[in-house]
Amino acid sequence: MASHVLVVEDSALLTNALRLLLEVTGHRVSVAATVRDAVSTARTTHPDVMLLDVTLQQEDGLDVLRELERTGDAPRVSVALTGHDSPEVHQRCLAAGCRDVLVKPVSGAELTARIDAWLQE
Fold first, then answer.
1. pTM score, two decimals?
2. 83 to each of 54, 77, 89, how far by Cα in Å?
């Protein structure tokens, strides 16, 4: 059975690229662009992996993970995607419960390899 990845990203261009990459490599993909949509989608689709943009429009993307953790609905693996490569952002993401922090842009080969590794843990 294909693993399910929830992509939480507000850039339509990046969302479409990630969806295509992940679907071509055998994953089922759901997408959300806001905290509210991401929480709702995660609760109804139960993804294995969530790729979470840290900055969503005027929202903190980490609020998605905080809410899902609070209600026991968090995916097996949540990974932060960010354009900010700083120790403070990295620490904030890990403290919120992210397994890893990937700095955009992330190569497709690296992303799919990491997803496969996380799912095998």
1. 0.95
2. 9, 20, 10
